[in-house]
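Supplementary Note 2. Why include the ligand at all?

Several targets in our set were suspected to adopt different conformations when bound, so apo predictions alone were not considered sufficient. For every target with a known small-molecule partner we therefore ran a joint prediction. The input for G3I is given below.
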Amino acid sequence: MSNAVSLKEVYKDYFKVGTAVNNRCLDRDKDIILKHFNTVTCEYEMKLAGLRRPDLTFDFANADKIYNFANENGIEVRGHNLVWHQGIYTEVLESMTKQQLIELMTEHMRTVGERYKKVVCWDVVNEAISDDWNGFLRDTVWRRKLGDDYYMTVFRLAREIIPDKTLVYNDFNEYEEPKRNNIIKLVKQLKTEGLIDAVGMQCHINILYCTADDIKRSFEEFSKLGLPIHVTEIDIGLPEMNDPAPLSSMTQEQREQQASLYEALFATMREYSSIIDSATVWGVRDSQSWLNNFRFERECTALLFDKDGQPTEAFYRITQF
Ligand code: G3I
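The joint prediction is reproduced in token form.
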């Protein structure tokens, strides 16, 4: 265990600092989690397919393990997520009528609301906005079944069934202006009925397509919504997710760009800390990152602790300011 400073201590006057966890890393990285983080998000275990079997019966075991660990250690749990186009049994949902799907989500929200009472917030809808800048909504089974205004329907259901929770809309590539404008359009619609309590900025960013100015602009534009911000899934992957090159081929300049972007992101978040509830990195150590096998199977570095659990350069850049 390194003698590095504690992230949650360094940021205690700014915002909560969190990480995505799964059952594998919970055992291996318990000491790092306890030292550095005061909020956790289940990387998979609280998604619909993480909580249910293909026959839709519940299997709470994996989520319970993380939830109980967090509660026993005074760590907050972010609920992730209720409605998404992944982490579900798409074919099963496709076979349902609109009414059956609404009944399923009613039961789902009631069940998770009852069982995970200490989950403070839920990413109610995740990634509804299309990556096609000329489009608006992503084509998903939820949209096909519930209609183009499905996100309104789902948030109304959540407000009715889990009224004590902070309801969040969560999305990525929010540093791209066209997509950010669409996210803001959707959030404003939710605001008209008082259905949303916070905006989730995933902050999966990279050195090729995102600059420090893009990050600053994103926080400035989202701050105008008058809602708290949850920064939910931070990582800065090297090699960039579309690059099959081995990690060993990354240059010192690229590594410096990665560290500098982490530094810029956390400096911007400190600047906007009055509206930021929490900042969560999407994994404890590099070997946990989804980016190791998202498009290419190869080792990557993306997080604040390397594959051996030691602080990365980014860790020092965001804690020495
Ligand atoms: O554990 C199950 C196993 O029991 C099952 O037999 C197998 C069947 O495919 O799946 C296993 O689950 C895998 C799960 O991770 C747990 O390791 C899934 O295959 C795999 O798809 C899943 O990947 C996760 C992905 O979301 C999809 O849910 C990644 O770990 C996770 O990092 C990624 O996180 C998402 C956020 O939720 C939303 N924003 C984007 C982000 C990156 O894609």
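The chain has two domains: 1-31+232-321, 38-202. Residues 252-271 form the longest helix (20 residues). Comparable summaries for the other entries are listed in the accompanying table.
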